[in-house]
Fold this protein.
Amino acid sequence: MNNTVIGLTGQTGAGKSTIADYAQEHSCRIVDADIIAREVLGKGSPCLKRLAEIFGYDIIDEEGCCRRKLLAERAFSSVENTEVLNRMTHARITELAGEYINRYKNEDGVIIYDCPLLFESGGDSLCDIVVAVAAPDKIRLQRIIARDGITEHEAMLRIKAQKDEEFYRKRADYVIDGSMDKERVLSQFGELLRKIARKEV
């Protein structure tokens, strides 16, 4: 039974989601840190209440749910604010991710832990192999604006809140150049999946 855990990480706008979608289409089990984060920041959660005390009670709407865009605007407005958000959410997200991964290990199939802040959160400790996706800032900027419908200024704040490409290159087992065309990006990842299936990595 092959249930290798691949940590999938990288810079926002680099192409990580494209690879995650491909992996799911090819029968990989996906554990998505962003989905888990929504659970951690769910209605009435202790974490959401603590964040409201720091970033403003208006990050919670009338129904008690997180205004995620407003929280992101404030959390990504400075490196310090980003670190506060991450510190308050990382441990719980990693704990829940570990629980999901362990459930999938009872089944056959490669497990993908899709986590933008894999290294920062310590989530790489859950993984057998780490794949990072990186791309130049100019390309990422265009993609983030188109994807999220935000201004160039807002997109740049998100880029600056993340680590640079060198950070990922030093830590990941494999780095995929997300600036390449989609077919080449997916071809590289597909070859890695085939190597895992053949137990060559």
